[in-house]
Amino acid sequence: MIGALLVRYVLLQNNWSAENWHSLAFQTGDLGKPYVENSKFKFNHSDEKHIVAVAIDFQGVSEIGIDLANPEDVGDPREFLVHFRPIFSDLELEQIDATISALPPGSQQQYLSLYWALKESYAKFKGVGLHGNLQKYEFLNVSPPTPVPQQISVADERAVYKLLPHDTICSVVSSRTGVPDFVKVDGADMIDYVTNMH
Predict the structure, then answer these.
(1) What is the Cα–Cα distance from 55 to 7, expressed in whole angstroms?
(2) Measured between alpha carbons, how far is 61 from 96 in angstroms, rounded to an integer?
(3) Between the CA atoms of 34, 38, 40 and 46, what dihedral angle is there, to the nearest 10 degrees?
(4) What is the chain's pLDDT, residue by residue, as a tens digit (198 residues)?
(5) Domains and CATH numbers, the chain
């Protein structure tokens, strides 16, 4: 529900009329991918650690997937890798092992959380969510996350990721080139704006 409200708010901020705002009919596909009936724009949303994120392609040129991940959910990095081994290719595991061995513990958790966000955002981009074979989506040469957006390719698509405040990882996948705008929206401002619409 918050994701749908955030989509509406972003649309209003991008010159959609209040009349159009009220007529948006949110639906989900067979595997849960959200869409709006009779609209060309594509969007996806995610939430984690009291943060809600939405990614929108206003022109509807590309499907889009977004995921937020919390490094605290990783727990012990070695146990995480044992438990989630089936989602990684052998080459990914080789690169992950080499990278995390050089990182301090908190950064190890961020790095593994980033891999989860990349895989889930790509699966959401494909419209299959966690029903897809995550091992098939191979991400190589992944740099640890920073507050500055970074790009990486998977198949013919592009993933952009960054470290958000509160140590949350955000990954966005689309076929568009370039770095998307990351805009922080204060929840109180959004609610105030929406409740005072005419």
Answers:
(1) 8
(2) 33
(3) -20
(4) 567 777 777 777 776 665 566 677 888 888 888 878 888 888 898 989 888 888 888 888 889 999 999 999 999 999 999 999 999 999 999 999 999 999 998 899 999 999 999 999 999 999 887 777 888 889 999 999 999 999 998 888 899 999 998 899 999 999 887 777 777 777 777 778 777 765
(5) 2-60+183-195 (no CATH), 67-174 (3.90.470.20)
